[in-house]
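Work Package 4 report. The design task specified in the project plan requires that, given a folded chain encoded as structure tokens, an amino acid be chosen for each position. We show below one input record used in the internal validation round.
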């Protein structure tokens, strides 16, 4: 009788190798799973092992490592035929999910905000009508057909109309559209005068000169009864239109390639971007950790920082002269179009409680008082809140959160100029929010 042949797979030496590889693969799964959980829960990890330091705040490589070790572990734990069958089942399941994502609209499955901005010969860049997707902080952004972020509660053809110009604070960066101060302002005013319409022309990173261009280009067609300018303190840095405007693409750094047509891949990428954005303060943006850290980051140890120079009134004379000319141009526009303008100054969190950092507030107030344009400095209102941190998105972002936007909306809604305009259309109604 011939001796029974022993399969190569069950030879003792091969079994030992297989067990060793299985143990290593299992260890890899456990390690990568623990590190992935650590980043999801805290934003990063750091530890020392064997005299070596390991540190990371990136989720993507950990997920890929976890998937790789899990696949190896699965292949070692079963036969080739079973492993192939399982792999087929996984691929089929993913294909079914992809199909469902194509049938059922899921915003998270769309490519990131690739085209929220487009180059513009007049503005450098502008919003793209119809663009939509998730912002880096997780807020849903949708640009309306008019080319502005809008909540669309009323058509433009009814009631008193207010147009709001501004930068990222007005745009509502970091909050859903209904939580931005423009939308909240409309809700407040409609409690008193149901046909009020408030239009948001805010664009991230626009400066004072952009507002003047919008006044000439886009605002007249909206026929507003009032223009509100939500001015953040750094708008003063670029008060006049440059001699040459360079059309450019800005902000959009989302990964868009041939794989973006797969909606399941978009879901994965968007989740990674969203999660990592939650921990920006641990990914190099230390100024987002708290108001105190942001204050230290800006100055006075960094006296050349633009924000510190803006706050303390130490910019160049040419900038202040340009701002004076722009304010005069704004006043001329208001008179020519017979449309009142209200300037609302939105403070940076690092200014609160520090008069020496509020020099810019007084400078802006003087300029607008000179041309008799009403001015509202929101700094005192922010300072009246017992814990100003509750008004901002720290440590995710330095912009105002929904509560901060509510404070801005209330300050505008209760301004005498706003009340006069809405009162002219709805004099018989009470003011429930006062």
């Amino acid at each position: 009788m011939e001796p029974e042949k022993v399969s190569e797979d069950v030879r003792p030496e091969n079994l030992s190798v297989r067990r060793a590889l299985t143990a290593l693969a299992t260890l890899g799964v456990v390690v990568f799973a623990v590190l992935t959980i650590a980043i999801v829960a805290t934003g990063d990890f750091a530890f020392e092992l064997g005299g070596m330091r390991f540190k990371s705040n990136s989720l993507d490589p950990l997920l890929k490592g976890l998937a790789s070790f899990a696949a190896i572990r699965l292949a070692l734990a079963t036969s080739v035929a079973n492993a192939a069958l399982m792999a087929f089942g996984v691929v089929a399941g993913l294909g079914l999910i992809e199909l469902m994502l194509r049938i059922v609209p899921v915003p998270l499955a769309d490519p990131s905000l690739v085209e929220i901005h487009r180059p513009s010969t007049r503005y450098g860049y502008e919003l793209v009508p119809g663009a939509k997707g998730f912002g880096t902080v997780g807020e849903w952004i949708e640009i309306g057909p008019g080319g502005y972020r809008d909540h669309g509660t009323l058509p433009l053809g009814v009631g008193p109309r207010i147009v709001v110009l501004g930068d990222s604070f007005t745009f509502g960066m970091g909050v859903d559209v209904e939580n931005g101060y423009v939308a909240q302002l409309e809700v407040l005013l409609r409690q008193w005068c149901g046909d009020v319409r408030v239009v948001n022309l805010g664009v991230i990173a626009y400066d004072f000169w952009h507002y003047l261009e919008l006044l000439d280009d886009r605002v007249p067609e909206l026929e507003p009864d009032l223009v509100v300018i939500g001015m953040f303190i750094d708008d003063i840095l670029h008060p006049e239109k440059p001699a040459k405007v360079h059309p450019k693409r800005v902000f959009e750094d989302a990964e868009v390639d041939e794989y973006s047509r797969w909606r399941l891949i978009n879901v994965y990428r968007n989740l990674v971007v969203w999660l990592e954005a939650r921990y920006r303060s641990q990914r190099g943006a230390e100024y987002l950790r708290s108001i105190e850290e942001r204050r230290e980051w800006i100055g006075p140890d960094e006296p050349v920082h633009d924000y510190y120079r803006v706050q303390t009134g130490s910019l160049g004379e040419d900038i202040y002269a340009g701002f004076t000319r722009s304010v005069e141009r704004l006043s001329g526009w208001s008179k020519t179009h017979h449309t009142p303008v209200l300037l609302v100054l939105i403070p940076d969190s690092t200014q609160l409680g520090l008069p020496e950092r509020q020099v810019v507030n007084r400078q802006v107030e003087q300029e607008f008082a000179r041309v008799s344009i009403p001015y509202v400095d929101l700094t005192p209102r922010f300072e009246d809140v017992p814990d100003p941190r509750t008004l901002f998105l720290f440590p995710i972002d330095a912009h105002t959160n929904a509560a901060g936007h509510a404070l801005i909306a209330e300050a505008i809604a209760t301004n005498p100029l706003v009340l006069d305009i809405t009162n002219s259309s709805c004099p018989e109604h009470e003011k429930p929010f006062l």
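Residues 215 and 221 are 10 Å apart (CA to CA). Validation will be extended to a larger panel in the next phase.
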